[in-house]
Design brief:
Blueprint lengths: L2 H20 L7 H4 L2 H9 L13 H10 L9 H18 L42 H11 L14 H14 L2 H6 L4 H8 L1 H5 L3 H17 L11
Helix pairs in contact: 4-7, 5-11, 6-7
């Protein structure tokens, strides 16, 4: 690493530390925890060859974060930071460090015909897309209805519009036990179970440990202890 790069990274790290100290006695908000400089620092580590390099941005993250009522603002300052750290940790794992937008080598089109409320459109694949890899016709349909896009007939938009992409991630987070897991005190491990229970029941230690490592890193950056129950 060159001296100039080291100085830039050090400056960003110092900004994060100062920001945490500034808000340590008050209520955190997503914008107060994750500055544009910090998000840009995360993106600076993404390889130029990654599809996510020119897709994910601070604006596409922070706007949807603030629209998700209660995200990063529920409970104490520590709990708020835990939630932002937990969200970003799972995003980093799901996207290979903000590299990927769409699922790599999907195993099927993930159409589940048993969800009659959300009938699959002919020829439309519902594989993982976006920061939390939205998957399945039932998730695309419900997310689209909540956010305002045609998730069943146009699932591709989740990989084309970065704001919608992040909004689907926050929709999933707030509606599928991730938010509640953190604010209720059940810990980071419960968010892993909510997003991919197969990693918990299938003994996939490597995947679980990857999520935990990301979470611990963000907690350090945000100036909080990671708390209990890290693993599912």
């Amino acid at each position: 690493m060159g001296q100039d790069m080291a100085r830039r990274i050090g400056a960003v790290a110092l900004t994060v530390v100062c920001l945490c100290a500034e808000h340590s006695m008050g209520q955190s908000t997503p914008r107060g925890v994750v500055s544009q400089a910090y998000f840009n620092y995360l993106m600076s580590a993404v390889e130029d060859s990654c599809e996510g390099k020119s897709f994910y941005s601070y604006d596409s993250f922070i706007g949807p974060a603030e629209l998700a009522s209660g995200f990063g603002t529920t409970g104490s300052d520590v709990v708020s930071r835990w939630e932002v750290a937990a969200f970003l940790a799972n995003v980093m794992h799901e996207t290979g460090g903000l590299c990927y937008i769409s699922e790599r080598n999907p195993q099927s089109d993930y159409c589940d015909a048993s969800y009659t409320q959300w009938p699959c459109a002919a020829g439309k694949p519902y594989f993982g897309r976006g920061p939390i890899q939205l998957t399945g016709n039932y998730n695309y349909g419900a997310a689209g209805q909540a956010i305002g896009f045609d998730g069943l007939n146009n699932p591709e938009i989740v990989a084309q519009n970065p704001t919608i992409s992040f909004r689907t991630a926050f929709w999933f987070w707030m509606n599928n036990d991730c938010h509640n897991a953190i604010v209720s005190g059940r810990g980071f491990g419960a968010t892993i179970r909510a997003i991919n229970s197969g990693e918990c029941t299938g003994g996939n230690t490597e995947q679980v440990n990857s999520r935990i490592a990301h979470y611990q890193r963000f907690c350090r950056d945000f100036g909080v202890d990671p708390g209990p129950n890290l693993s599912c």
